[in-house]
Write a structure and sequence with these properties.
Oligomer: homodimer
Radius of gyration of chain A: 20 Å
Mean pLDDT of chain A: 78
Protein name (chains A, B): Nudix hydrolase domain-containing protein
CATH superfamily of the largest domain in chain A: Nucleoside Triphosphate Pyrophosphohydrolase
Largest sheet of chain A: 10 strands, mixed
Distance between the termini of chain A: 29 Å
Low-confidence stretches of chain A: 1-18, 21-72
Pfam families (chains A, B): NUDIX, Zn_ribbon_Nudix
Largest interface: A-B, 88 and 87 residues
InterPro entries (chains A, B): NUDIX_hydrolase-like_dom_sf (IPR015797), NUDIX_hydrolase_dom (IPR000086), Nudix_N (IPR029401)
Domain Nudix hydrolase (chains A, B): 120-243
Strand content of chain A: 25-35%
Biased composition (Polar residues) (chains A, B): 37-46
């Protein structure tokens, strides 16, 4: 089970001058969105009381493999992550797996040089690109989710900002030059150690074509977004939040946590709950 | 030099229904804020045409050391980062440093098992805590920036969301239980491979005390925030943006990139530019 977390009350607001953010999650149940807002004629959030687990999402070298089997707590996940480290990357010494002095979590500690190998979540950055009332999607030409549609996105690299990384990935996957308009969403997937940072963007020129990691790139009108053929839960959530915003007539910034529903397939991109959703 | 990046035009807006975000940075010059808004009686952004470099921020085991000497491009930084990896953490084999097939950046590749060790930026998560028109700060009891003031913040761990991590760090450093109200800022520091995610929060109870990493915790009224004794540029930027928002009467979500001004000391937390600043 996840450790107890602070759940936002729906009446939460900034004491100083009224936070404009609306915490949507309330105590207890998680919030999930309908699997396909278009097929259900509604994108209204509804409650789910299902607990949280996670499953591996695959072995794409650009996507970090999730721990397998699923671990029940952040502490156990952190320990499991550290136990994958058998050797020191700096001196080559064997590691031991202990809680360092003054810390609380198990780490891989080098038995020769004493250095600690910290393991941290990774950021995936991407662009939600609007053009002529349509959205640009790429068909994945690599595993995982080969053949499924995605926003152009990938791991942030050392030396670049999230905005730069999102633009680079868009160039690599869709050969498209974009202008970033604003951050659109931060979606944490804690149990596979990923955080998605998605920017709203527009094409600088109406030119795009599949890069090496894509087999196709297409503009989709909002009613034709292929929700049944999207690659990852993060893409389903991002595009559903975007459709909700379009429907409401107001773009917002969204923060939330994506948790996989227990007992569902790791490849089912609709089997999730969106928890602690806050929006501007 | 940084690679060319997309710079936002001040007229950028969402084509669909008017993006409410205001890209503040314009072509060419970076934007910097005055070093101390209180001493200058203004927090208005002004232009700076200084280029971008970075310096090490220290060796705190909780803070990733920056590359030294400073590297001029993201690609060089990525290569420099990979060259620190001499051995495979999985099998202990020696690494070679090459561009893998189908990729563009130099990586550490194991000469025995062939695995690639990817290096990615890390997220630092923290809370900006309002209480009785004051802000809670912690005096650092560890290096770097020993004895200087900070918001409670630290590295996000595998298995937790950014919000959970921010609450955990607040507990560890200030023994304070908080309710998160909304995301307040994402500040990338690309050249030391860090992204700060700061949440606005409030105390659940008016109780706090220094944890092991703090020598003191205090509530500061907004006019008494110790800008000359803050630990990191990220804290200076966050608190200045917060004061600007207070002054304007409206809280916003902020995205931006912090770059160190060339020729300045790594310990000078005011020697930065805030680039590509976008706010809700």
């Amino acid at each position: 089970m996840l450790k107890a977390i602070q759940v936002l009350s729906s009446s939460s607001s900034s004491r100083l001058f009224g936070c404009r953010w609306k915490p949507l999650a309330t105590s207890g149940p998680a919030i999930s969105l309908s699997a396909n807002p278009l097929s259900h004629h509604s994108t209204t959030a509804h409650r789910s009381s299902e607990p949280v687990r996670v499953y591996s999402t695959g072995s794409d070298p650009k996507m970090e493999a999730a721990p397998s089997p699923p671990s029940p707590s952040p502490t156990a996940l952190s320990a499991a992550s550290s136990r994958k480290i058998n050797f020191c990357q700096w001196c080559g010494g064997a590691t031991k797996h202990e809680v360092p002095d003054g810390e609380e979590k198990t780490r891989a500690i080098c038995t020769l040089c004493g250095k600690i190998a910290y393991q941290n979540p990774k950021m995936v950055v991407g662009c939600l690109i609007e053009h002529d009332n349509k959205i640009l999607l790429c068909k994945r030409n690599i595993q995982p989710s080969f053949g499924l549609w995605t926003l152009p996105a990938g791991y942030l690299e050392v030396g670049e900002s999230a905005m730069e990384g999102a633009m680079r990935e868009t160039w690599e996957e869709a050969q498209a030059e974009v202008e970033v308009l604003c951050p659109f969403a931060q979606l944490d997937i804690p149990l596979i150690g990923q955080t998605y940072i998605i920017f709203l963007a527009k094409l600088k020129k109406p030119h795009f074509s599949p890069g090496p990691e894509s087999s196709d790139c297409q503009l989709f009108s909002l009613e034709d977004i292929p929700f049944d053929s999207l690659s990852f839960s993060s893409m389903v959530v991002t595009l559903k939040l975007y459709l909700e915003d379009v429907k409401s007539g107001r773009l917002k910034f969204h923060y939330g946590t994506i948790n996989k529903r227990p007992g569902t397939s790791p490849s089912d991109s609709h089997a999730y709950t969106l928890d602690n959703h806050m929006q501007s």
